[in-house]
Write a structure and sequence with these properties.
285 residues, 72% helix
Length: 285
């Protein structure tokens, strides 16, 4: 510790360019003392960039003064108290091994070593992938090419997200498979809605009411019914038919609200949607 303190004093008086080397020499001096191995608070100012020489000098001087034996006779109680203080935070952080009985320490060391090996094996492929990406962006592509590649990757992720989100919405709006086939006409879809309503299954009935409205529009040739499209996309395809789009918009809004926003669908909800769908049929003679 005295050697490290002397090196810090020398670094404080040395030119700025020589200070890091002297700070590293002081760190080496501390590392040579096994009893100071856990005293990270002594090494932290020296390991900083640039080295914090004033703080390092103050800590080393205080530690040296505290650890040096007094000139007179030593007080065993005071020495024991000092040892207890220096063995606890912030001077020394407790470890899991220090809390175990001595006969369990070798087992804990083996478990820790095995866990480190497994962790290194698991993270190795990811580290190599990151190294490859770093090499590609630093050696292969740079400047505008790197920017273009990054924008392309972002665009790909956005497209994948949109496709996944739309697929989830479409799948959520699907009615559970039934024994009867999907009605091919608007009239048969409306009849299926009435059967579901009579059975008290108003959510499924509302689905077929909407389907009936869409089929009636398709039957008139205003738009083609795409099973993978969302309700909003159906509305967008009717941009050239404002009267039909105006009649369908309340049906879509009401259906989306009861389908996605309501836990239960009642007879009143079904009849309101049926009334709105009637306006679509009136707009498609």
């Amino acid at each position: 510790m005295a050697r490290a303190l002397a090196l810090v004093e020398q670094a404080s008086q040395a030119p700025v360019a020589e200070r890091p080397a002297l700070a590293r020499a002081a760190l080496d001096a501390l590392a040579a003392a096994p009893e100071l191995a856990d005293f990270t608070w002594l090494r932290d100012p020296l390991a900083a960039s640039p080295p914090e020489l004033a703080r390092a000098r103050a800590r080393l001087a205080a530690a040296q003064e505290a650890l040096e034996p007094p000139a007179g006779a030593l007080d065993p109680a005071a020495r024991s108290s000092l040892d207890r203080i220096l063995s606890n935070p912030p001077f020394k952080s407790p470890s899991v091994q220090s809390l175990l009985p001595s006969w369990l320490v070798p087992v804990a060391v083996l478990i820790d070593a095995a866990a480190r090996v497994v962790w290194n094996l698991v993270r190795w492929p990811f580290d190599r992938l990151l190294d490859l990406l770093r090499w590609v962006f630093t050696e292969v592509v740079s400047g505008p090419a790197a920017l273009a590649l990054g924008l392309l990757a972002i665009a790909g992720l956005v497209l994948l997200y949109r496709r996944g989100l739309r697929a989830a919405l479409v799948a959520q709006a699907e009615v559970a498979a039934s024994d009867e086939p999907l009605p091919p006409t608007a009239a048969e879809a409306l009849a299926a809605a009435q059967r579901y309503a009579a059975a008290g299954q108003y959510r499924e009935a509302c689905h077929f009411v909407l389907l009936s409205a869409l089929l009636s529009i398709e039957a008139q040739g205003w738009a083609r019914l795409d099973r993978a499209a969302t309700n909003r996309e159906h509305l967008a395809r009717l941009a050239t038919q404002p009267s039909v789009a105006a009649a369908l918009a309340p049906v879509v809004a009401r259906f989306d609200r009861l389908w996605y926003g309501q836990d239960t669908v009642t007879d009143a909800d079904y009849r309101e949607l049926l009334r709105l769908a009637g306006r679509v049929r009136e707009a498609t003679p």
